[in-house]
Specification:
The chain is mainly beta and 607 residues long. It is built from five helices and 33 strands. The chain is globular, with a radius of gyration of 23 Å.
């Protein structure tokens, strides 16, 4: 199916739906999506529409409707300009053939080091390789996800060059004891089992969860299994101060039979990763902030003999002051050390660590409830690369209560990882990658708050790209610059109490071919709710996705998924889902065919 045909289907289906039911109730009291409160773009809770950066939010309900077990693939459906690679039903894997690469605005690498993943604001990446391990992010633990599309280095430092994904986990908010649990079964012996328990009494709250997911895979020796546990607790010392702590541990095992275009080479990974964090938060009338301590750790054993241990530890302190009406003034400092050791590479069995220290200031002033001016600067010191200065500035203007214009210019950067400096094709003389991002956005809210639209245009200029240059031996070098241009569009229409439609489209013109960065991406989500029934339809089209740059191979494909559920009791939901209903034959990772039509069914219980 061509892109043009898909666009025609989208338009006709949307028009038919609106024609059939738009005459119904116009007095729907929905929340104004443009006014959602977010924290990731400013580190203090603020309306999304006055942050000059491009910020998206995905709710737990939207995550649930996709039926995805892992959180990252759900972002493809709801956020323009972002794409996450997959290679099977479950399991992203590591090393050659590994998936889970994330691109934002056409900026991507393998492994993924340009997009920073946070959990509740804490950085998540391996100390040696500098990238997250996406298999550890389970959808059932997530309350919502906030995404910055474009650099966020001023607030989060290195690795936030292309953007940030902040996974915000569940917190028990209602008094008493609550539990949820459920299971699902599907094609290729794919199974999920999960359970959560939440408790709140007066000033104390706690939440724990356990998950187990597994699949036999779509071909021999591609099975995957993961078990993880999560615990979170908080205590309100008084109305101004609170203490929060959380801990997560995940263990997973996966087999990889390699590319279908080569002889099978069985490859097994056995990984354990964990994190712990403690935060002391304050909230007063004219100030709010936090002191956060975090520690990430992992052990990785691969059947080819590779083994590594790593850590990523840090301290974050920030405080936002509100000295006068309409003003936010944030000061912060970060200290982190990351590293570890591996049993192979140029620095085999040597402990290698890098320390980063930073201080930043960010301010926003609103004039006449219409114009907001933002500016900030970060000073970063890296124990290997020295100093880096990161500026940012932006303006938002509310033409009316329903129309907002935003523009920003921001710098992003990424320091080379321990692996790039010391282990494989190592070069200790590498320079950090950097880029400047310029964008302008139009946000519109109309039809009695039922229709929300966002359109963004962007230009990205980058330099000092790090790539492996072939030779004897091969070596990593800073090889040049890149320039990306494009647009992102998203819309949501709450037609009435039964129907809602959301969709997004992104186009990026990439100066140099990049894996995991499609030229065009379009998504449509249609939901219908009546009585105890809920029907969901999800369509996605991908145009010119590079799966192999060396062989100049690109893929186009169109996916159609559907989900039906019934709340047969107040405490019990049953569901069934069909995936890739068009039975597309496609690859996202070269040599790893994705499944054709497959199904799953299950139930969720809430007590």
């Amino acid at each position: 199916m061509s892109m043009k045909q898909l666009q025609i289907i989208f338009v006709l289906f949307s028009f038919f739906t609106i024609f059939q039911i738009s005459a119904e109730s116009k007095n729907i009291n929905d929340s104004i999506r443009l006014s959602e409160l977010v924290v990731t773009g400013s580190k203090t809770e603020i309306s999304r529409k006055i942050i000059p950066l491009s910020v998206s939010q995905v709710s737990s309900e939207e995550i649930k409707r996709t039926g995805q077990i892992n959180i990252l693939p759900t972002l493809n459906s709801f956020v323009p300009g972002i794409f996450v690679t997959e290679r099977s039903l479950l399991g992203f894997g590591v090393s050659t053939g590994g998936a889970g690469s994330i691109s934002i605005r056409g900026i991507s690498s393998s492994p993924n080091t340009e997009v920073l993943i946070l959990i509740d604001g804490h950085p998540q990446y391996q100390g040696i390789f500098g990238h997250p391990l996406p298999d550890a992010y389970v959808a059932s633990d997530v309350d919502k996800v906030e995404i910055i599309r474009g650099p966020a280095s001023i607030l989060y430092g290195s690795n936030a060059m292309a953007g940030v994904i902040n996974i915000i986990t569940h917190k028990q908010r209602s008094e008493g004891l609550q539990s949820t649990w459920g299971t699902s079964f599907g094609s290729y012996n794919t199974q999920k089992f999960y359970g959560t328990l939440g408790y709140k009494k007066d000033k104390w709250n706690a939440f724990v969860s356990a998950n187990h997911d597994q699949t036999d895979g779509i071909r021999e020796n591609t099975d995957f299994r993961i078990s993880n546990g999560y615990a979170k607790t908080g205590y309100e010392i008084n109305k101004h101060l609170s203490l929060n702590a959380d801990f997560n541990i995940a263990a997973y095992n996966a087999n990889d039979n390699g590319s279908v275009y080569a002889d099978p080479v069985p490859f097994n990974i056995d990984i354990k990763r964990g994190k712990a964090a403690l935060s002391f938060d304050n909230k007063f009338g004219r100030a709010d902030g936090s002191i956060k301590l975090y520690h990430n750790f992992g052990n990785h054993v691969i059947s080819d003999g590779f083994e590594s241990t790593d850590h990523n530890s840090g301290l974050m302190i920030f405080e936002t002051f509100h000295p006068v009406t309409g003003n936010n003034l944030t000061f912060g400092t970060d200290l982190k050390q990351y590293g570890g050791k591996a049993n192979s590479g140029a620095a085999a069995n040597e402990e290698k660590n890098i320390t980063e220290m930073a201080a930043y200031a960010y301010t926003q002033q609103t004039f006449f409830d219409k114009l907001a001016v933002s500016a900030g600067i970060r000073f970063e010191n890296n124990s290997v690369f020295g100093n880096e200065l990161i500026p940012m500035g932006g303006i938002t203007y509310s033409i009316s209560p329903n129309t907002t214009l935003k523009t920003s210019a921001s710098k992003g950067f990424r320091s080379p990882t321990v692996m790039e400096l010391y282990l494989y094709a190592a070069n200790p003389d590498l320079k950090p990658e950097s880029m400047m991002n310029y964008d302008i956005s139009w946000l519109q809210n109309t039809l009695d708050n039922r229709l929300q639209i966002e359109l963004t245009l962007f230009i990205v200029d980058g330099k000092n790209l790090i790539q492996v240059v072939a030779g004897t031996p091969s070596i990593r070098q800073n090889v040049g610059s890149f320039n990306n241009k494009g647009l992102e569009f998203s819309a949501r229409y709450n037609i009435n109490k039964h129907w809602n439609i959301s969709g997004n489209y992104s186009y990026v013109n990439i100066s140099k071919p990049v894996l995991a960065a499609p030229r065009q991406q379009a998504n449509l989500n249609v939901n219908y709710h009546v009585s105890v029934w809920h029907f969901g339809l999800m369509a996605q089209h991908i145009d010119k996705l590079y799966t192999s740059i060396a062989q100049d191979i690109t893929k186009n494909y169109t996916l159609l998924n559907a989900r039906i559920s019934a709340q047969i009791l107040p405490q019990l939901e049953i569901f069934a889902m069909g995936n890739n209903l068009l039975n597309q034959k496609y690859e996202i990772n070269y040599g790893y065919p994705m499944p054709g039509i497959y199904f799953n069914t299950g139930f969720n219980v809430r007590l």
